[in-house]
TrEMBL record, chain A:
Residues 1-56, 458-521 are annotated as: Disordered. It comes from the Eukaryota. GO terms for molecular function: protein phosphatase activator activity. InterPro entries: ARM-like, ARM-type_fold, PP2A_B56. GO terms for biological process: signal transduction. Belongs to the phosphatase 2A regulatory subunit B56 family. GO terms for cellular component: cytosol; nucleus; protein phosphatase type 2A complex. It holds the Pfam family B56. This is Serine/threonine protein phosphatase 2A regulatory subunit. Residues 470-488 have a biased composition (Low complexity). Residues 27-38, 511-521 have a biased composition (Polar residues). It comes from Sparus aurata. Residues 16-26 have a biased composition (Basic residues).
Automatic annotation (TrEMBL), chain B:
Residues 99-280 form the Phosphatase 2A Regulatory Subunit A helical domain. This is Protein phosphatase 2, regulatory subunit A, beta b. SUPFAM superfamilies: ARM repeat. Residues 286-367 form the Phosphatase PP2A regulatory subunit A/Splicing factor 3B subunit 1-like HEAT repeat domain. Belongs to the phosphatase 2A regulatory subunit A family. HEAT repeats lie at residues 22-60, 99-137, 176-214, 215-253, 254-292, 293-330, 336-374, 375-413, 414-452, 542-580. One of its GO terms (molecular function) is protein phosphatase regulator activity. It holds the Pfam family VPS15-like_hel. PANTHER family: PROTEIN PHOSPHATASE 2 (FORMERLY 2A), REGULATORY SUBUNIT A, BETA ISOFORM-RELATED, SERINE/THREONINE-PROTEIN PHOSPHATASE PP2A 65 KDA REGULATORY SUBUNIT. It comes from the Eukaryota. Keywords: Repeat.
Length: 521, 648
């Protein structure tokens, strides 16, 4: 068989690197130039610094207009001269607005924003790689970056110019402008997102009237990301901006902000790509809690609700965030969440994935957390004991076993008597759990029997409503035509039997309950 | 109905299970700490309801569920689904409105899947409401949702308007229209998206006058929304709206918006237009298609984004098929074909392979002469395309061309393409071409096949990838079915048997797999093909080879002998089974390798079961054939059973 070597055929995996290399070569995209008809050739204008001051303003405007011409950067050979002219002009403009005073006259604003809008606002192209994994794959870079970068630079200098007047600019930098700017955060090009981040931050700082709008639109982007598309490249950047916005919130927090925390930031934890923005997200959450400690309980409960079930990597991140929260928690708040939280932690330390177990066990290296645990040892030890005791014997990883021994020792030192009690009742507790398990099975078995009998009965009785019950009985259709009478006969007996078992059960249940309360004491 | 419902509830309570299953115990289960257990309990909610009886379900269970809706989304999802089927459990249609409160809460949950399920259930039970209940209970719920604070309830409301609209009074109808209008201009894009996606559905239940007065303005507004995610949903609605309107209104009411969408600055919207093109074409009718859609389609085929071109390319055949007959050929030849020609050499492989998957269909539309003159060069070009997927798509649709011009026209180019694909470095490509082999064999005929393709089929048997060897084995069997037993005896069997002595144990195993399948194939077809002699040949020729392989030095081969014998045992006659197979299996059962031992023992002990199931299968098959044959089989089965019993 021809040219392809045997090894290539055997191993499909070696090909991946080749495929990747191909992808990286052409990983440039842009749908910018396509919106315009073919560009006209540009001719260079005189330098601004050489022009007499009376003509400078006019020349500035001309240059801005010249920069509205867009070029095809896919084709690296066309319009080379014009591209170079535009690049030089943009450079000059950047320089002009950043070093000169008094250049931002009112009439220049529309020209400036027009040039910016034409250059940066565009529909982002479809991703080259439909299942783009930001962690693995190289991002598609913006092909027209040589120009766009300078436009962004210009926008930034424009906003930062000491003469910049938001009261004039707000006519042009309006809601629509911001909306389009926010859409660009989905760009795959990290350089572009970085610029956007700084720019949006400046706009948020300077345009008080746009603040609520910006927050709301970011909300919408996040909600769409969480519940609809699961895809947005700029989540980390937006969170970074939010981090500093939250920092500046006035106290007491408005309900709008609290809603944002609970309905947007906490659900963001469910995202598949959490690792890409977890650091920023955790920072935002902690900022909120530092502002208003009473939010601790809902936040922790929210995290517990969305606790990862199968993704160990995310679980480690959650544990990291919990530790950050515990670092700033107030002791009164801690008391409110200790039970549900430590139930989860106790599951984590028993996790067969050693990184999860290890991360959870590291909590015991944290002095502040340790002091909180010590204060509440009578509540926490009973929750933790079972898991710790079990894995100290069972965990496959020797590091974990060693860590667990240390933790057990620490806990024992905190309350020796309780520890001894728990050790001696461990076996009995396990047995009680097993028994409870059996009782549950029994209960469901009885319910199941009842259901079977009932459906037959119902079928039998409801001949007046044909077909209504077809949903509820799955397998009884066949039997009941033949066996109606015998089913009716047996029904009474089985219900009786159920009665007997449940009579036996009831006292046991209450007994267990009372016992468990005494254990806790 | 009420009487029946009471009766339904009656027996349960009569048996006194009030005391049996106090709701507390059941609720305890619903509150269990373990999510999985809670989930299990919720999934058996109907059982709990049944145990409680209709009255307690209404007065205790439902309030509990309504009050405590704060749980894992997975539990909520199960709950939302359950409640949709709860009508009888709360006492029938008369009481169905009891289900509204918990479902209303669920319809406001953040998680989309939960909310959608709640809406689905609400839609379901809305049908079970009487018209009065619908106005008294259901419609107020829709209104509450529509004016909820948080966007989730408003998105849910969008899906409920259309189910209650047809069955309420005209004043309520007016209110519903007003609510829908408000949601279409909601300030969160999520709600506008939900409204846009339900616009078509809502239009369908509206009176035509209101479609013209209300829906069109909403449609126009949504289609020019600032967010492309909203605009693209309006395209979907366009299909249903255009279907509803009389032809003469389309031009003024729908077409301006559709034209605008086809040239939208966002590629996502254009993509949607391309994706829905056939539906749009049907909805607007032949005249508008000729005047407007043809140029729009040309533009989409030339779009600057590959995504859009690929979506349009996918529709080429359907679009051409649905063109009005009188001008079809002319439109295709002058407008569509030039674009198609360009797409054949597109820079993007997805575009090319999308085109390749439909282009062959054009030949039936254009007829023999045009196909030979215009399409054939394109087919040939695509057969030589650098991207294997393009070539594969052409080959997989060969049957369309075969009908029009015969496959021979292509065979000159076909063969190199097949050979190249057959040796492609990606095993998935090789796998795909193998799957088309039987089809190709059928169309090219046995002579051509023997001459050109047979060697390929045999070469796949010794491929480096197991999946290919496996597919090649199955492929051989399909060829045998096509070309018959005699062909197999002459061309395949000798080569396969020859491989039994190959130095590579993987190849020796391939022999085993082939023989096993061959045997079973014969067994299944013996009666239908009336080639009873096949059994004889197989036994004489192949069994010795298999049995000899039981001495192979590689354990994998040996235990595969055991596995094969287990499969083919039933097909063998009892003498061979007793005299030859049994000793071999017994020897393997004492093998040093534990896997060999295991499979040999399986084969010995598993035989009874396998045989029985086979006999049953045969009986089923045969019951369709003549009664006489039935008796034959029956005899055979009993003799087989006898053998088994003897073996045991």
């Amino acid at each position: 068989m021809s040219a392809i070597s045997a090894s290539e055929k055997v191993d499909g995996f070696t090909r991946k690197s080749v495929r990747k290399a191909q992808k990286q070569r052409k990983s440039q995209g842009s749908s910018q130039y396509r919106t315009q008809s073919a560009p006209v050739e540009l001719s260079p204008l005189p330098q601004l610094k050489d022009a007499p001051s009376t003509e400078q303003q006019e020349l500035f405007t001309q240059k801005l207009q010249q920069c509205c011409m867009l070029f095809d950067f896919f084709d690296s050979v066309t319009d080379l001269k014009s591209k170079e002219i535009k690049r030089a002009t943009l450079n000059e403009l950047v320089d002009y607005v950043s070093t000169n005073r008094g250049v931002l006259v009112e009439s220049a604003y529309p020209e400036i924003t027009d040039m910016i809008c034409t250059n940066i606002f565009r529909t982002l192209p479809p991703s080259d790689n439909p299942d783009f994994d930001p962690e693995e794959d190289e991002p598609t870079l913006e092909a027209s970056w040589p120009h766009i970068q300078l436009v962004y630079e210009f926008l930034l200098r424009f906003l930062e110019n000491p003469d910049f007047q938001p009261s004039i600019a707000k006519r042009y930098i309006d809601q629509k402008f911001v909306l389009q700017l926010l859409e660009l955060f989905d760009s795959e090009d990290p350089r572009e997102r970085d610029f956007l981040k700084t720019i949006l931050h400046r706009i948020y700082g300077k345009f008080l009237g746009l603040r609520a709008f910006i927050r709301k639109q970011i909300n919408n982007i996040f909600l769409r990301f969480i519940y609809e598309t699961e895809h947005f490249n700029g989540v980390a950047e937006l969170l970074e901006i939010l981090g500093s916005i939250i920092n500046g919130f006035a106290l007491p927090l408005k309900s709008e902000h609290k809603q944002f925390l609970m309905k947007v930031l906490i659900p963001l934890h469910t995202a598949k790509a959490l690792s890409l923005f977890h650091a920023q997200l955790a920072y935002c959450v902690v900022q909120f809690l530092e502002k208003d400690p009473t939010l601790t309980e809902p936040v922790i409960r929210g995290l517990l609700k969305f606790w990862p079930k199968t993704c160990s990597q995310k679980e480690v991140m959650f544990l990291g965030e919990v530790e950050e929260i515990l670092d700033v928690i107030e002791p009164t708040q801690f008391k409110k969440i200790q039970e549900p939280l430590f139930k989860q932690i106790s599951k984590c330390v028993a996790n067969p994935h050693f990184q999860v177990a290890e991360r959870a066990l590291y909590f015991w290296n944290n002095e502040y957390i340790l002091s909180l645990i010590e204060e509440n040892i009578d509540k926490i030890l009973p929750i933790m004991f079972g898991s710790l005791y079990r894995i100290s014997k069972e965990h496959w990883n020797p590091t974990i076993v060693a860590l667990v021994y240390n933790v057990l020792k620490t806990l024992m030192e905190m309350n020796c008597t309780l520890f001894d009690e728990l050790t001696s009742s461990y076996k009995a507790d396990r047995q009680r759990e097993k028994k409870k398990e059996q009782e549950r099975d029994e209960l469901w078995k009885n319910l199941e029997e009842l259901r079977l009998n009932n459906t037959t009965l119902v079928q039998n009785n409801s001949h007046g409503l044909p077909g209504v019950h077809n949903n509820n009985n799955n397998n009884n259709n066949n039997n009941n035509n033949i066996n109606i009478s015998s089913n009716n006969d047996t029904q009474d007996k089985s219900v009786d039997a159920a009665a007997v078992t449940s009579d036996n059960n009831d006292p046991d249940v209450s007994e267990t309950a009372s016992e468990s309360t005494t254990c806790a004491k | 109905a009420a009487a029946a419902a009471a009766e339904v509830g009656g027996p349960c309570r009569a048996d006194g299970d009030d005391s049996l299953y106090p709701i507390a115990v059941l609720i305890d289960e619903l509150r269990n700490e373990d999510v999985q257990l809670r989930l299990n309990s919720i999934k058996k909610l109907s059982t709990i309801a049944l145990a409680l009886g209709v009255e307690r379900t209404r007065t205790e269970l439902l309030p509990f569920l309504t009050d405590t809706i704060y749980d894992e989304d997975e539990v909520l999802l199960a709950l939302a689904e359950q409640l949709g089927n709860f009508t009888m459990l709360v006492g029938g249609p008369e009481y169905v409105h009891c289900l509204l409160p918990p479902l209303e809460s669920l319809a406001t949950v953040e998680e989309t899947v939960v909310r959608d399920k709640a809406v689905e259930s609400l839609r379901k039970i809305s049908q079970e409401h009487s018209p009065v209940d619908l106005e008294v209970h259901f419609e107020p719920l829709v209104k509450r949702l529509a004016s909820g604070d948080w966007f989730t309830s408003r998105t849910s409301a969008c899906g409920l308007f259309s189910v209650c609209y047809p069955r309420v009074s005209s004043t309520v109808k007016a209110e519903i229209r007003q609510h829908f209008r408000t949601l279409c201009s909601d300030d969160t894009p999520m709600v506008r998206r939900a409204a846009a996606s339900k616009l078509g559905e809502f239009a369908k239940v509206l009176e035509l006058d209101y479609v013209k007065s209300d829906i069109i303005s909403l449609f126009t507004a949504l289609a020019s929304d600032e967010q492309d995610s909203v605009r693209l949903l309006a395209v979907e609605a366009c299909v249903s709206i255009a279907t509803l309107l009389p032809q003469e209104d389309l031009e003024t009411l729908v077409m301006p918006t559709l034209r605008q969408a086809a040239e939208d600055k966002s590629w996502r919207v254009r993509y949607m237009v391309a994706d829905k093109f056939s539906e749009l074409q049907k909805a607007v009718g032949p005249e508008i298609t000729k005047n407007d859609l043809v140029p729009a389609f040309q533009n989409l085929l030339k779009d600057c984004e590959a995504e859009v071109r690929a979506a349009a390319a996918n529709k080429v055949k359907e679009f051409c098929e649905n063109l009005p007959e009188d001008s079809r050929e002319q439109i295709i030849m002058t407008h569509i074909l030039p674009c198609v020609k360009e797409l054949v050499s597109d820079t993007n492989q997805h575009v090319k392979s999308a085109l390749a998957s439909v282009i062959m269909g054009l030949s039936t539309i254009l007829g023999k002469d045009n196909t030979i003159e215009h399409l054939l060069p394109l087919f040939l070009a695509q057969l030589k395309d650098e991207c294997p997927e393009v070539r594969l798509n052409i080959i997989s649709n060969l049957d369309c061309v075969n009908e029009v011009i015969g496959i021979r026209q292509l065979s000159q180019s076909l063969l190199p393409a097949i050979v190249e694909l057959a040796e492609d470095a990606k095993w998935r490509v090789r796998l795909a071409i193998i799957e088309y082999m039987p089809l190709l064999a059928g169309q090219l005929g046995v002579e051509f096949f023997d001459e050109k393709l047979n060697t390929l089929c045999m070469a796949w048997l010794i491929d480096h990838v197991y999946a290919i060897r496996e597919a090649a084995t199955c492929n051989l069997m399909k060829l045998v079915e096509k070309f018959g037993a005699e062909w197999a005896q002459n061309t395949i069997v000798p080569k396969v048997l020859g491989m039994a002595n190959d130095p590579n144990y993987l190849h020796r195993m391939t022999t085993l797999f082939c023989l096993k399948l061959y045997w079973l194939l014969f067994f299944e077809n013996t009666f239908a093909l009336s080639e009873a002699c096949g059994q004889d040949i197989t036994t004489k020729q192949m069994l010795p080879v298999v049995l000899k392989m039981s001495n192979d030095q590689v354990a994998n081969v040996r235990f595969n002998v055991a596995k094969s014998l287990q499969k083919i045992g039933p097909v063998l006659d009892s003498n061979a089974l007793q005299a030859e197979v049994k000793p071999v299996l017994e020897k393997l059962a004492t093998d040093t390798d534990m896997d060999v031992k295991y499979f040999a023992q399986e084969a010995i002990s598993g035989k009874v079961f396998h045989l029985l199931s086979l006999c049953k299968k045969t009986l089923n098959d045969v019951s369709r054939i003549l009664h006489v044959r039935y008796l034959c089989i029956n005899e055979l089965c009993s003799s087989l059973l006898f053998t088994v019993l003897a073996l045991a």
